[in-house]
Amino acid sequence: MTAFRRLIFFIAAIAPDMAEAHAPLGGVGGFAGSLLHPFFVPVHVMAILGMGSLVAWLPTQGRAIFLIAFALGLLAGSITIAIEYTPIYANETLLALSLIIGGAVALALSLPPFAMGLLAAAIGTVIALDSPPDAITVREAILMQLGMFIGATAFFWGAIEAASWLRRPWQQIGVRVLGSWIAASALLGLALRFAR
Amino acid sequence: MRHGVIPFVVLVALLAAVPAIAHTGTFGGGLWGGLVHPLFGLDHVAAMVAVGLWGAFLGAPAIFVLPIIFPLVMAGGGVLGILGVPLPVAEIGIAVSALALGLMVAFAVRPPLIVAAALVGGFAIFHGHTHGSEIPPGASAVGYSLGFVVATGLLHLAGIGFGLLARWPSGALAVRTAGAIIAFTGVVFLSRLA
After folding, report:
1. Residues contacting A113, CB < 8 A, separation 6+
2. Which of A5, A18, A103, B97 has the fewest CB atoms within 10 Å distance of its CB?
3. Taking Cα atoms as reference points, which of A159, A57, A42, A35 lies closest to residue A95?
4. From B15, B17, B79, residue closest to A191, measured CB to CB
5. How many other CB atoms are there within 10 angstroms of residue A134's CB atom?
6. Which of B27, B124, B83, B78 shows the shortest CA–CA distance to A37?
7. How confident is the model at residue B106 (pLDDT cuts 50, 70, 90)?
8. How would DSSP label each residue in A26-86?
9. pTM for this entry
């Protein structure tokens, strides 16, 4: 091999940047990165906080069903990813769902429980579809999906619990203002996505 | 030699490509740009603080209805701006919003809630349109939008925080003076546009 070819090989080895398709946190990948993934992707945060706020308005006894619906949605999305389906508009769908949920929170609309269950399941599914693992081995991919599942479920549970603590009138107003921010951000984000 | 070099150069060019980042809307990038964008327009800042001041001055339910309505309608205006729908009087509308909302606070005007909401919502279209059309081409859609909306909401909260001083007589004077100052800045912005 000539010196020129060695030089080319060297450049080729150092030139590519790190592929970080789903690493919103620099330097944190694998299971830990996937665990934190839902906390650091704005549209995931918006959807989970909005849905958590909606569920928190319901009586304590009935809340578990929505957590289960969300977790089943995550599972369904992960299985869909595992059979090599490539989602096209997952992020945009999540924005549209955030718009609906944020609007419902802002306007203090009480949706029928069946509709809320469907929304929770849909959000779980789309979050999983929007978090495909960028792993090389099957074991690594399963670990990353497991991390995403635990992180997203814990975040959703935490959002429900946190919002259910906010009982005072001014705190309820704060939740509604947060809903309006989620809806407005989702609408602007959707417009930007489709305008470009 | 020549036949061997070209494939290598092509290979290097391919490998040197920038990374594909699916979630460009992370909290580090676009969010910051969106957060600081509304803070650099004094006319926008003045009007947003006035919305909060007026809401606090009017009390419940206006204190929370106005800050909820504004971002929702502003996003609608932002969509018009993003889609390139022309709104020639947008800058004038923003200056008038500072003037009108400042006067409402200064003169302690207490219209029915529906009138206050319609006034604030109407001005929100101008603010949204201007900011929507000013979003830089490279900005990440979700992060930037979220930052932009949150910054606007925080300006409302700042206005509400100061407006709560109106519970006390001297505080009410301070709030109404702030309204007068905002109205004056609105006149200054209008004179610049004339």
Report:
1. A58, A62, A65
2. A18
3. A42
4. B79
5. 18
6. B27
7. very high
8. TT--HHHHHHHHHHHSHHHHHHHHHHHHHHHTS-GGGTHHHHHHHHHHHHHHHHHHHTT--
9. 0.79
Interface of B with A in 127-156 (CB under 8 A): 132, 135, 137, 139, 141-146, 148-150, 153
For residue B13 the two structure tokens come to: 């060019």
pLDDT tens for A45-88 read 999 999 999 999 888 888 899 999 999 999 999 999 888 777 78
Report the complex ipTM.
0.76
pLDDT tens digits, one per residue of B176-192: 999 999 999 999 988 88
Complete DSSP assignment for chain B: -HHHHHHHHHHHHHHTSPP--S----TTTHHHHHHHGGGG-HHHHHHHHHHHHHHHHH-TTHHHHHHHHHHHHHHHHHHHHHTT---TTHHHHHHHHHHHHHHHHHTT----HHHHHHHHHHHHHHHHHHHHHHS-TTS-HHHHHHHHHHHHHHHHHHHHHHHGGGGSHHHHHHHHHHHHHHHHHHHHHHHHH-
- The one-letter amino acid code at B89 reads V
Tokens found for residue B171: 């505080």
Closest-CA distance, B191 to chain A, in angstroms, reads 31
